[in-house]
Design goal:
- The chain is an alpha/beta fold.
- It folds into two domains: 183 residues, D-Maltodextrin-Binding Protein, domain 2; 131 residues, Periplasmic binding protein-like II (D-Maltodextrin-Binding Protein, domain 2, 3-Layer(aba) Sandwich).
- Helices cover 36% and strands 17% of the residues.
- The protein has twelve helices and eleven strands.
- The two termini are 25 Å apart.
- The relative contact order is 0.19.
Length: 330
Amino acid sequence: MSDLNLSIAVGDYDHIRDLLSGAIKVEGVNLRVVKKEPVEEIFYRFTKYREWDISELSFAKYVSLASQPDCDLVAIPVFPSRAFRHSSIYIRSDSAIKSPAELSGKRIGIPEWAQTASIYTRGLLAHEYGVALDSVDWYQAGVNEPGRREKVALKLPQGVRYTPKPEGSLSGMLLDGQLDAVLSARAPDAFLRNDGKVKRMFNDPKLAELVYWKKTGIFPIMHVIAIKREVVERDPWVAMNLMQAFEAAKERSLERMLDITASHMPLPWISSYAEQARDIMGDDFWPYGVEANRVTLNAFLSFAWEQGVCHRNLSPEDIFVESTLSSVRV
């Protein structure tokens, strides 16, 4: 029997490189790489049009869709992008706000309520600093350009004050005083200009993130790998074979980073950074699968339900293909 022909769109990550290049094969599948960049376009086109069979997808968009009736997507617990989010809170440098707790009662801008990074950051503010969702005036707009809108249906909690501002940008609104803070995965232009007018909320976000991880065990998952449901229903073995191939590609990437004999990435001391991550987080410091990520998955699903991104309360078992729920280390 000939291999299945399946199309895939995913960001250009080192830990997926060997899969996309064909150095790692998906057993029984001939992968056609459709698109690698930018991920925002990949998310939009797959969410709206389902243009390919397999896609990297915003975790928030996926769980929102999965919580609604007749979702035509499934996912495997492969996480191309992860990032701690203490560094994604921005305020003006002349702001009187000195601690995250002081964001209660303020005006905060977000790119989308259903942006994964915003969900984690709101969860962080609520559960670590007591900033209740209904204590804030929330404004939604594009980070640096006007016109951005929500891409999935929301069920906002009662009492939440949420105002779309399609005519504005978060960067401009922060600078001119319409906003007290911005939560954004991508830094606002007002910060990137490095003119001293905008700064991060945390002076040492890496230290704050390390303390948070040691306290909670949460290493935020940003993106997942989604598959058209019809593909897995027709050929159930595809999900596990994909999972194993992603895992094998990631293992090769981790080996490259830990290699002290050659510079596999253009960054000084890359192997030292990888060794530090291993010492802090264990041998597999970028784990796939459910059990190794259950604390993070449970936290995110709880945040998404509390914040009205999910339409019903979900567990990890509800959102991943059943055959991929067990460990797949290769």
